[in-house]
Design goal:
Helix content: 25-40%
Order of helices and strands: HHEEEHEEEHEHEHEHEEHEHEHH
Number of helices: 11
Number of strands: 13
Length: about 375
């Protein structure tokens, strides 16, 4: 059974429901389709992409937020993604912000969310990853609990890092969600410097303990000015972070003014922020000068959007809102597009800082 056609059949029903309820129902439908063996594997010949010392079977990933608790990792992986990022996860379980907290802007294929890192906590997530059968690259997006003061945020990130390190293929440090109070302050110079210092030092110890190197990325906002992007890029290079994810959702509403729900609080994702995310990617590419790879996310609804992100400097891409509006067929269309395109040589991203452990020390992987 083609999951894209199945989603198309259920889309009218799903779009008649509250967006959050529809989100949960669509994941349950996917889960049962997968368990019953009805998902047909996608077969496209795409050269693997080597990034951050990891080999991705293809450069198309699922962004964090779709499966916060890793409850549907196997089913989502079966859709053809080269990697799946779960989370954002926090040390303790939390219910997030009050409902309603998810809104569709159908006119512009966009979503506003103010979920607030609702998740079951890092221990529950780790148990599910341990039991998953998915063999692709798994990224874990980490954050802080809403009740943790911003000046102690590094403690929450450190706890999450220690829990997920043995299980994650890479870790994404989320400092850019607009839905946790003051979180974006962590993008400021002193706060980011402190956070990266703590995490990088902890990773050195974890690498020695587990005898495996886990790449670390940082996810930034699209609402930064050019100067702010360049400053973050310098810090990422200084701390030898392995990659940067650009971008999270935006608070800017200039593209959706007058539309229903446009004034709801939260982060805007989808088509309206496509160019804004691409500009940040372009700035990062200029600032980083090839020293670390960029994962592009934001407004990818078509194959043309993938090409735009790639041309701006992204090596990998991630989908989220595009899946809500296009369904799993978007993954199929992008993979088909990539299968007939020349895939660039990305071996220079394999280990930009020479930090990965030797082959002898990677036996535990």
């Amino acid at each position: 059974m083609n999951p894209g056609r199945l989603y198309d059949s259920f889309r009218p029903l799903l779009f008649s429901l509250d967006p959050e309820r529809a989100h949960l129902l669509s994941l349950e439908l996917l889960e049962w389709t997968y368990r019953l063996g009805f998902i047909t594997p996608l077969k496209y010949v795409i050269p693997p992409v080597k990034v951050m010392g990891l080999e991705f079977v293809n450069p198309v990933g699922l962004a964090a937020g779709m499966d916060k608790d890793a409850k549907h990792l196997d089913a989502l992986g079966a859709l053809g993604f080269g990697f799946v990022e779960v989370g954002t996860v926090t040390p303790k379980p939390q219910i997030g912000n009050p409902r309603p907290r998810l809104f569709r802007l159908k006119e512009s294929e966009a979503i506003i969310n103010r979920l607030g890192f609702n998740n079951e906590g890092v221990e529950a997530l780790c148990r599910r990853i341990s039991n998953a059968r998915y063999k692709g690259i798994i990224g874990v997006n980490i954050g802080k609990n809403s009740q943790t003061p911003i000046e102690r945020a590094h403690e929450d990130y450190l706890l999450c890092l220690k829990h997920v390190y043995p299980l994650a293929d890479y870790v994404a440090v989320n400092i850019s969600s607009p839905n946790t109070q003051n979180l974006r302050q962590l993008q400021q110079s002193d706060a980011l410097n402190k956070l990266l210092d703590v995490l990088v030092n902890a990773r050195e110890q974890l690498q020695a303990e587990y005898k495996r190197y886990v790449p670390m990325t940082v996810k930034i906002a699209p609402d930064l000015e050019r100067e702010g992007v360049f400053h973050i890029a310098e810090l990422l290079k200084r701390y030898k972070i392995d990659g940067v994810i650009a971008t999270n959702t935006t608070m800017d509403r200039r593209w959706v003014q007058g539309q229903k729900f446009a004034n709801e609080q939260g982060g805007l994702s989808g088509t309206p922020m496509r160019s804004q995310a691409t500009v940040v990617i372009r700035w990062l590419s200029e600032a980083l000068k090839g020293e670390l790879p960029i994962i592009g996310v934001g407004g990818i609804i078509s194959t043309q959007d993938v090409a735009e992100k790639k041309n701006a400097g992204a090596v990998l891409v991630q989908l989220y809102t595009g899946l809500v509006y296009q369904g799993p067929r978007l993954v199929e269309e992008i993979l088909q597009y990539l299968s007939v395109k020349d895939v660039p040589d990305t071996t220079r991203w394999a280990d930009p800082f020479g930090l990965r452990a030797s082959d002898d020390s990677e036996a535990s992987e």
